[in-house]
Design brief:
Length: 240
Amino acid sequence: MSEQTAYVTGADRGLGLALTEALLLRGFRVFAGEYGLDASGLDTLAETYGERLHRLPLDVACDRSVLRAADKLREHCQQLDLLINNAAILGDFTGGITDPLDFTLMQEVYNVNSLGPLRVAQSVFGHLTRGSLKKLVNISSEAGSMEQSRRTNRKLRYGYCMSKAALNVQTVILANHAAEHGIESYLFDPGWMRSFMHGTKNLNATQSTDETAEKILATVLDRPHPGYLYMTRDGHRYDW
Ligand SMILES: NC(=O)c1ccc[n+]([C@@H]2O[C@H](COP(=O)([O-])OP(=O)(O)OC[C@H]3O[C@@H](n4cnc5c(N)ncnc54)[C@H](OP(=O)(O)O)[C@@H]3O)[C@@H](O)[C@H]2O)c1
């Protein structure tokens, strides 16, 4: 069997870097979307894994960048087994309805978090249909859940929550189409992780990115698809 291939966006650091490393450890050839603020993690992986790691400059908010990355990926492989849309930004986390709200920043968050995964999925969809695994993974959040915002009486985080809710419905629509090609789709709330969404490493969070990456890959690669889309990193159903 030929080497399995995966494409991970936002692979510079945080969960994306951990997923990239975990996939390399499993023997995958990994196309790692590199945004560029801190490339040191990918530099270290490149020393260990050499040519199995392909670094693709990638801004998921930019049509041209996404198409260029897909062209580069196609130069190196005939088919793609697994796509993980991981890249996202937080934007302003603090404003409520009585505060000034930065609508320009919210549009940026929507562009990265909601449109970015659709751009990337479209750019490699043909390759994914030819893959042997046929797996499409979108990393969402508890922030995308209507029920969670209701249950927790949330009054802040408009931009990020709306962007993840949009990603969620996008994943439903895309999964319907992808299923016609035998592609299985997953939408994860990965949990609260010690990553860099706030700019510096969040040491208060409860979960490591490495453990989360392992659990997500175990759910996607080692077990049958659970039959629903929105789930925790362990594969338990998450409320819409
Ligand atoms: N952290 C949590 O507790 C948590 C909870 C629920 C869901 N999530 C989700 O988990 C996923 C991974 O987040 P994380 O926690 O690992 O955050 P992170 O540490 O900030 O990593 C996000 C990655 O995306 C990259 N990125 C940012 N803007 C991009 C763009 N326009 N194009 C391409 N890449 C871009 C970042 O690059 P730079 O480092 O260069 O900016 C970084 O490599 C996200 O989808 C996030 O919404 C996280």
